[in-house]
Amino acid sequence: MEEKIKAFLKEIETFTTEKQQEIEDFRIRLLSRKGQIPALFEEFKKLGGEEKRKYGKSLNELKQKAQAKIDDLRAGASKDGETGERFDLSRPASAGFMGSRHPVNLVKNEIVDIFKRIGFNVSEGPEIEDDWHNFTALNFPEEHPARDMQDTFFVARNPEWALRTHTSSVQVRAMEANKPPIRTISPGRVFRNEAISARSHCIFHQVEGLYIDKSVSFADLKQTLLYFAREFFGKDTRIRLRPSYFPFTEPSAEMDVYWGLENEVDYRMTKGTGWLEVMGCGMVDPNVLENCGIDPNEYSGYAFGMGVERIAMQRYQISDIRYLFENDIRFLEQFHTAL
Ligand code: DAH
Predict the structure, then answer these.
(1) Which residue has the higher pLDDT, 48 or 249?
(2) Atom of ligand 1 nearest to the CA of 165
(3) How wide is the angle at C-alpha 253 spanned by C-alphas 302 and 197, nearest 5°?
(4) In whole angstroms, what is the distance from residue 279 CA to residue 242 CA?
(5) Reported confidence tier of residue 86, pLDDT bands at 50, 70, 90
(6) Are residues 329 and 269 in the same domain?
(7) What pLDDT, on the 0 to 100 scale, is given for residue 85?
């Protein structure tokens, strides 16, 4: 009897597993009604009084230790299902959590796709730029306010470098690296030293467009933008071009899309005009062509640039730009179906 109790104690002490099935097998073998420990109790009943006194206590302890060991193993066992039940392969699977695209990417991808369909390729440039690509090549005068510390984040280690303030810098890189015809679209992240509010953020995204070829005209620009507006906002969309100013285009314009002026939301979104400002555009200034090694007597071109967040806010009726940067799952979840 003594030997047997010792052997079981040792087995209980050394046995280990995390598998539910093995724990259960162990329990059945030792403790079930026909298990080895109850069998030992049967043997015990047959012992004489002297021996009963000797082994009664240790036998009870053995049983308790076995039970405690099983409880311990169960607590540390790997859970196969939410209830800790063993695998039931016939159970219906719970649906996995699907991520979704960020609204800024949804809009960016759609813009890029629209231009790809008419032969634009995609180009990218660095987010840390030098003064030449962000400003000088783009015909910004030396004292232009956009170069000011208030607008631009400069790199502390090297003030020659700044975080690009617009994706127009990629225009310059595209022209430096390629011979016309150039038809390219450049999505990317840009940075401005601005106070964060419901309407503006210090980080946002733009999509830049550039077309350089022989005899590209303002009419080409206008028709391309009309095509874009109708693909993106709907086939009956109307646009208008308002004169504007950018150092790198001449003439320059601002493109608006007619949104409507029927209710309070329309009033708020269009500042009471019915028109939504969508992008800046114009004919590439001959100085810019020259700066990038393209002969302005041979080639001409147009460029345009738009803010992705602003368009996303219009499209999804988002009232505060900060929602687009907080990554609050309750906000992002709403775009699940927009994949
Ligand atoms: N770079 C301008 C901005 O950041 C947007 C822009 C305007 C881009 C006119 C262009 C353009 O290419 O032709 O606001």
Answers:
(1) 249
(2) 4
(3) 110
(4) 11
(5) low
(6) yes
(7) 56
